[in-house]
Amino acid sequence: MIVIENVAVATVDASDSYHADGHVVVGDDGRIAAVGAGPAAEGEGRRVDGAGCLVTPGLINTHHHLYQWATRGLAVDETLFGWLKTLYPIWGRLDAEVVGAAAGAGLGWLALSGCTTSMDHHYVFPRDGGDVLEAEIEAARRIGLRFHPTRGSMDLGQKDGGLPPDNIVESTDEALSATEKAIDRWHDPSPGAMLQIAVAPCSPFSVTERLMSEAAELARRKGVRLHTHLAETDDEEDFCRERFGCTPTEYAERLGWLGDDVWLAHGVHLDDSAITKLGATGTGVAHCPSSNARLGAGAARVRELLDHQVPVGLGVDGSASQEASHLGEELRQALYTARTRGGPGALNAREALRLGTMGGARCLGRQDDLGSIEAGKLADLVLWRLDGLGHAGIDDRLAALVFGPAAPVELALVGGRPVVERGELVHADAVTLAREAVRAHRRLMERAT
Ligand SMILES: [Zn+2]
Fold first, then answer.
1. Beta strands in 258-354 (DSSP E)
2. How far, in Å, CA of 399 to CA of 349, rounded?
3. C-alpha 80 to ligand 1 mean position (Å)
4. How far, in Å, from the CA of 25 to the mean position of ligand 1?
């Protein structure tokens, strides 16, 4: 049992309950036993003094490509399509060792940024690269994060009018059967699951219509969720209009890709009718404001999405299109992006925190167990330290967290188990992870030349 007390608590429950001086009690079953104002009842277990801190639900990362940690800092001034064309040939040489090291670094960094659950969208499976999905699952176990890797895929190479080179795409049948195998091997449907799989063909310009629609059938047959990139850039919109004669959202609708079991990465270029469709179908959006800014893709219409009841989560996106990859910082970036578009009323600190927690839980289908601090939910919690120089003098701790600089993580729990303590990973060493990431990067770059 762990008792966090003498602490500010932002619960993100349905009424956004906030306790300026409260407590959270974590039971031995890894779930939240109690939350409220004032001190906790006396009892056994570890007591954590939260003076100077704010406890929130653990942040949930709804879009990422962990392997990209091995190719950061390249093509830094390119558009999405230019950046992809530069990087595809390098990614074609990925293997399990590179992916394992990149995922270890990426997930360790996410944990230090206040993330307790991350998805990953992996869609490059070189023929002789070994089991790259297993490599990243092992990395997540090593760090201790709750993990939702998706089995991605690409089957539309250049010779068929797609963007990726032909040697890094799979055949449609290979992609579908490997995806089904990944679900059978790894997916845990239980409420406390540490590992769930989703089905994730990559994007309209790298996947055939057949793979998109059969992937949706597969996911629904297996009871798992669906994810893909959609409406990220103007180039993608042009591609869809030319090839399919419609917008990306109309294309998704045609293929059975709107629904409350689907969440889409980006959703930047959505017209009013697309936003209405997403809201009406309960289709989620992984909002990745820093990546969208880095690639100059545009700014998602988050206020309008929320007003139409679209589930919106936050994502850092791949580490090669958003080198910071810090989920805590995305709270502020999301707020700034919304306000740049819509003025100061477009998003507030409470709403930004909701995107990063409950919004993410809804995207991943985990809203019954994650995303808020309520008795009975899984104890995925972050205790942010807000009494250092960076936040000195900001009395409102939620404002300090969202408007201030990235806050140090005093304690992060996943299912009640510590994964970060006093700004350090509990189960891995950050220096070792960095060294392994450098080695993986060099190995990949040497092979690529
Ligand atoms: Zn992405």
1. 262-266, 284-287, 312-314
2. 6
3. 10
4. 36
Widest CA span in the chain: 68
Given a contact cutoff of 8 angstroms between Cβ atoms, the answer to whether 145 and 419 are in contact is: yes
Is the pLDDT reported for residue 449 higher than 70?
Answer: no
pLDDT per residue as tens digits for the range 346-386: 999 999 999 999 999 999 999 999 999 999 999 999 999 99
User: How far apart are the CA of 201 and the centre of ligand 1, in A?
Assistant: 11
Q: How far is ligand 1, taken at its centre, from the CA of residue 328, in Å?
A: 18
Q: In the numeric block, which tokens belong to residue 380? A: 């995925």
Q: Provide the percentage of residues in the chain whose pLDDT is more than 70.
A: 100
- Any bridge partners for residue 119, and if so which? 148
How many whole angstroms from 318 Cα to the centroid of ligand 1?
6
Distance of CA 390 to the CA centre of its chain: 26
Q: Which of 393, 410, 423, 399 is nearest to 332 (CA)?
A: 399
**How far is CA 8 from each of CA 2, 79, 286, rounded to the nearest angstrom?**
16, 42, 28
Q: With beta carbons less than 8 A apart as the criterion, state whether 284 and 313 touch.
A: yes
**Structure-block tokens of residue 336:** 């700034």
Upper half-sphere CA count for residue 308 (Cβ side, 13 Å): 23
Sign of the C-alpha dihedral, residues 56, 58, 64, 69?
positive
Residue pair 244/213 in contact (Cβ under 8 Å)? The answer is no
pTM equals 0.98
CA of 266 to the centre of ligand 1 (A): 8
Work out whether the CA dihedral 381, 387, 389, 395 comes out positive or negative: positive
Fill in the DSSP letter of residue 438: H
Query: 32: which residues sit within 8 A by CB, 6+ positions away?
Result: 24, 25, 26, 373, 374, 375, 376, 377, 378, 379, 381
β-bridge partners, 153: 201
Going from the Cα of 284 to the center of ligand 1, the distance in angstroms, rounded, reads: 15
Residue labelled with tokens 């540490």 = 194
Tell how far the Cα of 29 is from the centroid of ligand 1, in angstroms.
35
Rg of the chain taking only CA atoms, in angstroms? 21
CA separation for the pair 416, 1 (Å, rounded): 8
